[in-house]
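> run fold Alpha/beta hydrolase fold-3 domain-containing protein
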Amino acid sequence: MEVLRALRHWFAPTIDAFVAPALLFTYRWRLLTLQPIVLLTYSLKCLPWLFSNAFDVILIPTRRLNQPLRAIVFHPPCRTSDERPLRPIHLDIHGGAFLGGLPEFDADFCQRLSRETGGVVISTQYRYSPRHIFPAAHEDIEDVSKWLVQHAEKRWGADPKVLTVSGFSAGANLALAVSQMGGGMFKWPSQTAVKGCVTFCAPVDLRLKPAEKPKPANYPKQDPLFFLQPLFDSYVARTRPASINNPILNPILAPISDLPPKILLVTPTIDILLDEQLKFAERLKEDVQRETEDGANAVRREVQIMLFEDCMHAWLELPSFLIDEKTREKAFKTAIEFIKDVHREHGWNNRGA
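> ok
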């Protein structure tokens, strides 16, 4: 069963192109052109982990009966904190333009995060477009988060009150969505609200189509994947008019009071998402400053944005021979230290890291 489930994801573009109901032809032929890219990407990202015992595989139930989501769980080697009897817990959400991906995509980051923080780290799947459109993936991540909060202590000795999240690309949008306290999806109890969020290459404003987003000066004149842009927009396109002001889909609209108190944006400069991330970070910092001046900062807030010059979207997910490995090391190290600071603020100090 697990083999069939895995093969379904590896060949999902081809399967959906032929059998997905009510799918426009413009998506079907593009899915077929996407298939070889998917196979190459999955092979590079997942084959090294195929026979690994670095994580456990679990199935997380959702509101869709008999359709659980596959997730992988990384456990730290030992407990080394004297301050808290329970570990922190972290949810990571992989990228893939809402079109696909596997939990193993972020295995390098998740394994290192668990080892260095002493926390339990879970990476999960969700439903993909164009077969499934907004809010399908967001509902899945909501269900996963609820389940983790309910089962963290009993299953893994983890504390849902020290919950952090991260996400890559589309997963970063989902991470910011599930982090919101008052955005209309998951009303987090105050004690279990997300304490910190790290995003990598986050799409925070999906009100514009990819082709309409402002391009930075150093962006290539011709996008080699321009023919796939309708697919990249397929998760949002049919629901954009109805969700144009929805902060769950567009975190740039979310009031700072609904967002986690600690946010780190890891942002490459060769990316059509650069402009919206800069505006998002600037607005949040202004809100923090305004709260401070008004004496309304009941919680300690921190917003950071870390720019990586001459790096492109999703560069962190490329093989070492295609990028400057020092930039990946810097991004991951900064993100892990940021999460460690969140943990320390809530009484967890992994002395063995």
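The two ends are 38 Å apart (CA to CA).
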